[in-house]
Write a structure and sequence with these properties.
It is a single chain. By secondary structure, the protein is α+β, with helices and mostly antiparallel strands. It has 3 domains: 109 residues, no CATH class; 39 residues, no CATH class; 95 residues, Roll (Chitinase A, domain 3), CATH 3.10.50. Helix content is 57%, strand content 15%. It is built from 10 helices and 6 strands. The protein has a 4-stranded antiparallel sheet with strand order 4-3-6-5, with helices on both faces. Strands 1-2 form a two-stranded antiparallel ribbon. Helix 1 packs across helix 2, helix 1 packs across helix 4 and helix 2 packs across helix 3. The chain starts with 6 loop residues before the first helix and ends with a helix.
């Protein structure tokens, strides 16, 4: 379950975390007289489930127990060999301890300084202006040569359906399956040549000539236009909170650095 190159980190993380937080727990196993507290297993399980890789199941707990026993066996052997006293190991342990303590400090700071809904709404109102403008619902047919594009334009003039041609001939397989539909988007989100041609099209019309870009030759049809509405406050609230918390933490760190005596 755990990759071999994470073994040393797992040992150090479990050992340091237990000593720093001193969480009371039962025992899941004893190795050469040394008890392995269930708090270590809880930390491992929490790490794995937090990444969405697995659920907390008896099978996962059994795998974690097996891994912790292996870790403890190797750890005890390393102590016998005096590896824990080597300069390299001591330096790595100190760095790991520092990361854990810093992480705990930042988490406590964030909890003590929550971002209010009113502040989130103020920030949302600031960036909401960026949502202004128009969105275009377009289709396209992408081909490799100008000759292919001219033949398709001729077929369209004869009354053949745009979506059927897109499904049969467009090189953009993602949109081809939907009849060339590109969904709603701002013209600026496309490459310059495509976006310029799209913005100039009247609603319901198709480009009279193919538009050449780095991808090939495009025949573009504009289905509809609407005012851009952008995401709602509720849709971006979580992401916005994370962003503002990150900025808050960054400012806190910068203030600490300013106050520190650095020589």
């Amino acid at each position: 379950m755990f990759k071999a190159n994470r073994l040393a980190l797992a040992i150090a993380a479990a050992t340091l975390t237990t000593s720093v937080f001193a969480a009371p727990a039962g025992t899941i196993a004893t190795v050469n007289g040394v008890a392995i507290p269930s708090s270590k297993a809880d930390l491992f399980v929490k790490e794995v489930t937090a990444r969405g890789q697995q659920k907390d199941t008896p099978e996962l707990r059994a795998q974690v127990k097996d891994e912790l026993i292996k870790n403890e066996v190797v750890y005890q052997e390393a102590i016998k060999k005096g590896v824990d006293k080597s300069p390299e190991a001591l330096a790595q342990l100190e760095m790991l301890k520092q990361r854990i303590v810093i992480g705990a400090f930042v988490n406590s700071y964030v909890k003590a300084n929550p971002i209010s809904d009113s502040d989130l709404r103020k920030e949302y109102d600031k960036i909401k202006a960026n949502f202004a403008g128009k969105e275009f619902k377009a289709r396209h047919i992408l081909v490799a040569t100008e000759a292919e594009a001219k033949a398709i334009l001729a077929d369209l003039k004869k009354g053949k359906k745009f979506d059927e041609i897109a499904q049969a001939k467009s090189m953009d397989k993602g949109s081809a399956a939907k009849g060339g539909d590109l969904g709603w988007a701002n013209p600026n989100s496309f490459v310059k040549e495509f976006g310029t041609a799209l913005a100039a099209l009247p609603k319901g019309k198709t480009t009279e000539t193919a538009v050449k870009t780095q991808f090939g030759y495009h025949i573009i049809k504009l289905d509809d236009v609407r005012e851009a509405k952008g995401p709602s406050f509720e849709e971006v609230k979580g992401e916005l909170a994370q962003q503002m918390q990150g900025q808050q933490v960054q400012k806190m760190v910068e203030d600490l650095v300013k106050k520190a005596k650095v020589e």
